Amino acid sequence: MASEDLSAAAWLACGAEAYLKRRFTEAAEHFEKAAATDPESAQAHLALGAARLTLYRRRPSPVSTYLFATRDFSERELAVHQENEKAILDEQNATNWRFAENSLKRANQLEPENSLIVEYLCALYFYWKDPLDKDDRVNEAKQWLERLLELEPQHKYANFQCGLVLMAKARKLLPNYGRFPPGPELDLPSDRMKARPLLEEANQHLERALALHGEQTAASFLLDDVTSMQAYIEDPDLAARDLRHKLGESFNRHVQGKKTDTQAADSATITFSLSPDALAEDRKRPFPPNPWRIPVT
């Protein structure tokens, strides 16, 4: 049988095989043929959306983070890097991201009760990136997360991601939170008041995630961050002094060469390892993968 005569199911199988071998562009091509062969197949549109979202998240970088870490860049080099990054994002937002949105929305039209399709739409809007780094699409992500909770009130990741989205919205209203010395942006009292209900709602979602699934979603770490942001809203000056004190202690430990256990509050980098349960879950559903753990490297 010629490849052009394959069924939608056969194209889906070819695409899944290519995806698992990390040939993501080839996988997307197979899924496109599956969707063209059977336009009413929600699974074909979901698979194509998943592949396109993967390609979007794996978009090329104009310069490696390793180079940034190993040498200083001139202002001109940084400007060139930023322009290149903006051009890449402009192109990716117009292609892979837009193609993923079209496919996933079509899949949702065909199967509106399919929670995995809804979850992919949540992730799609959450991971969208503005080339100018000024805008976001977290409001749309939250709308789909709320729909996901309607379909599955005890969904493992929906409450955690809702909390994360609300924290991101609050964080944009607090440009100097966590910064010492403060940046040029002003934290307006009116914006701090707008952030308060967002953090209260984030706290509710994260508490529910913790109650339902324990530490599997790292909700406790984000709850600590919510508490810190709430303290900042109440007294920004005190929060800045506390941060300065922590930075001073960290610097002194570094100078004195003391090795201490790293607390989350003192660390600039937090690394989460997947639990055995999470790894087993990923092995059970190799494709489409968990949308929050799409392979990006």
What this model shows, in words?
The chain contains 12 helices and no strands. Mean pLDDT is 85; it is low at 259-272. The protein is 67% helix and 0% strand. By secondary structure, it is mostly helical. Helix 3 (42-57) packs antiparallel against helix 5, helix 9 runs antiparallel to helix 10 (219-234) and helix 10 crosses helix 11. The longest helix is centred in the N-terminal third of the chain and has 36 residues, at 75-110.
List keywords for this structure.
single chain; 297 residues; mainly alpha; Serine Threonine Protein Phosphatase 5, Tetratricopeptide repeat; 2 domains; 0% strand
Task: Give me a quick take on this structure.
The chain is mostly helical and 297 residues long. The protein contains 12 helices and no strands. The chain has 2 domains: 1-112, Serine Threonine Protein Phosphatase 5, Tetratricopeptide repeat, CATH 1.25.40; 154-292, no CATH class.
**CA gyration radius, whole angstroms:** 22 Å
Poorly predicted sequence stretches spanning 5 or more consecutive residues:
259-272
Q: What's the quaternary structure here?
A: single chain
Number of strands: 0
From N to C, what is the helix and strand string? HHHHHHHHHHHH
User: Which structural class do you get from the secondary structure elements?
Assistant: mainly alpha
Task: Characterize the main sheet.
Answer: none
Give the strand content.
under 5%
Fraction of helical residues: 55-70%
Number of helices: 12
- How many structural domains does the protein architecture include? 2
The backbone outline, from C-alpha atoms, is globular
End-to-end gap: 36 Å
> Mean pLDDT, as a whole number?
85
